[in-house]
Write a structure and sequence with these properties.
The protein is an alpha+beta fold. A four-stranded antiparallel beta sheet has the order 6-5-4-7. Strands 1-3-2 form a three-stranded antiparallel beta sheet. A hairpin with a 2-residue loop joins strand 2 and strand 3. The model has no long low-confidence stretch (mean pLDDT 86). It contains four helices and seven strands. Helix content is 32%, strand content 35%. Helix 1 packs across helix 2.
C-alpha cells in the first residue's frame, strides 16, 4: 500500500501544505508517523479526495452535464484566431489547454484571470502509474 507525506498529499489535493496539515489535525483524514514524517495511506487520501470534491460541488451551482471530470481553475492564457481560439487553464497542479471557437470564448467572457472549469469527457484516457 502506498503512503504519502503531507507535502505530497497537499500537491495531489491542490492545496498548501499548511491547509493539508490543518485538515489532518481536524481529523478530516487519518495520518501516522514514519520516523519524523507524517504520512497518509493511499486509500485514505483517495477517499478524502472524493469527499472534498463532493463538498466543493455542493457549494456552488454545478451545471447539468454528463462530463464527470471537472478541473476548476483560472484562465492563464487566451490566444484568439480569426475563427478559433486556444484557452489555457491552471487547475491546481494541472495545466489544461483547450481549442475552441472564438465565438465560444467571447460568449463565455474568457480572459486571463477569469475563473473557469475545464470539463473532460473522453473514451481515450491514458493513465500512468508513478
Amino acid at each position: 500500500m502506498e503512503s504519502y507525506t503531507i507535502g505530497q498529499a497537499a500537491r495531489l489535493l491542490g492545496v498548501s501544505v499548511d491547509t493539508a496539515r490543518r485538515w489532518a489535525d481536524a481529523d478530516r483524514f487519518p495520518t501516522h508517523r514514519e520516523g519524523t514524517r507524517r504520512m497518509v495511506e493511499g486509500p485514505d487520501l483517495a477517499a478524502f479526495c472524493v469527499e472534498a470534491a463532493q463538498e466543493g460541488a455542493e457549494g456552488g451551482e454545478a451545471p447539468y452535464t454528463s462530463a464527470r471530470n471537472a478541473f476548476p481553475g483560472i484562465v492563464t492564457g487566451v490566444k484568439l484566431g480569426t475563427v478559433d481560439a486556444q484557452v489555457e487553464i491552471q487547475a491546481g497542479p494541472h495545466r489544461i489547454v483547450s481549442l475552441l471557437t472564438r465565438e465560444a470564448v467571447e460568449e463565455l467572457g474568457l480572459e486571463v484571470g477569469a475563473r473557469a472549469t475545464a470539463r473532460v469527457k473522453s473514451t481515450s484516457v491514458f493513465i500512468d502509474r508513478v
